[in-house]
Amino acid sequence: MAIELLCRKLGMTRVFEDDGSCVPVTVLDASPNSVIQKKTVETDGYSALQLGAGERRADVLTRPARGHYEKAGVAPKRWLAESRVEAGEAEGFEVGQEISCGIFEAGQKVDVVGTSKGRGTAGVVKRHNFAVHTEGHGTHEYFRHGGAIGAGAYPGRVIKGMKMPGRMGNQRVTTRNLKVVRVDSERHLLFLQGSVPGHPNALVRVRAAAASR
Questions:
Q1: Cβ(83)–Cβ(49) under 8 Å?
Q2: What is the pLDDT of residues 85-121, one digit of tens each?
Q3: Are 71 and 96 in contact (CB under 8 A)?
Q4: Neighbouring C-beta atoms of residue 26, cutoff 10 Å
Q5: pTM
Q6: What does R_g of the chain's alpha carbons equal in angstroms?
Q7: With contact defined as beta carbons under 8 Å apart, do 192 and 112 qualify?
Q8: Alpha carbon distance 67, 7 (integer Å)
Q9: Residue 150 and residue 207: Cα distance in Å, rounded?
Q10: How far apart are CA 120 and CA 7, in angstroms?
């Protein structure tokens, strides 16, 4: 369990190391998160911090939502999410406090949780990397189909879990052990080596990898 900083994916670029090597990185907008609520074992049954990020107009919120932010003494936020933390770690934070990207450092390994891009309904070639049928030996109208899905005489039905066409993407994905290349505390930017799930401007949650906690 660790703090999951709410960030906005900006896109990908590259940076050059001192030795001249080129490193592909994903840039995240890691503007400070505000602690909206603290949950404890005594009151809620578990220990967690509710974090808010982004900006949102107050007039589009319901009265209970506005009251929730007013109680915390912070401006309305676009995103809310909980971070499960140990009780001892939660004691070090107060409601209304801001958490910046300074909790991470260059060279650290992190996990990134996000929602993958939705690809709609896809066939087996795109969805499961099936091989394309040969274009020779009389094959026609059957280039990107799957093969046989039955199991012969027994059990005489399609087995559950068979790889088939269907919805692709638009699901929770966790990319683990990404290296933090740079931390720009002044501009609130995180540079992570490699790609992270989601489209540009998508919400992602960044936490310390299990090995580095």
A1: yes
A2: 998 888 889 999 999 999 999 999 999 999 999 999 9
A3: no
A4: 24
A5: 0.86
A6: 23
A7: yes
A8: 24
A9: 44
A10: 25
Classified as helix, coil or strand, 148 is coil
Tokens of 189: 């930017």
Domains observed in the chain: 8-28+105-118+174-213 (2.40.30.10), 33-99 (3.30.160.810), 120-168 (no CATH)
- Name residue, tokens 């209970």: 64
C-alpha 162: how far from chain center: 27
Residue 205 identity (one-letter amino acid)? R
Amino acid at 87: A
Residue type, 133: H
Q: How far apart are CA 130 and CA 49, in angstroms?
A: 43
Cis amide leading into 155 (omega within 30): yes
Contacts of 12 (CB under 8 A, 6+ apart): 24, 25, 26, 27, 195
What are the Cα distances from residue 128, in Å, to 101, 159, 173, 176? Answer: 37, 17, 16, 21
Token readout for 60 is 């589009």
Per the listing, tokens 């199991």 go with 151
**Of 11, 186, 10, residue with least CA distance to 100:** 186
Residues 72 and 64: their CA atoms lie apart, in Å, by 13
**Residue with tokens 């290349």, as numbered in its chain:** 181
Region for 62 from its dihedrals, namely left if φ exceeds 0, alpha if ψ lies in -120 to 50, beta otherwise: beta
Kindly indicate the confidence band of residue 186, based on its pLDDT and cuts at 50, 70 and 90: very high
